[in-house]
Amino acid sequence: MDDVKNVTIHHIVEKAKGGAELNFNSILLHPNCHRKVHSRNLKVKPTRETDL
Question: How far apart are CA 29 and CA 41, in angstroms?
Fold first, then answer.
């Protein structure tokens, strides 16, 4: 199994904008990637049609 110790949780719809604290609204990201998402104002999209 891959090492999952060094990950952060990113909310697809921000909690401040009403996003749920549920699995379907979260994705695991490497901490550097997570910082880039926020600092560059990038959007993370669900990977399946059934998500969100």
Answer: 15
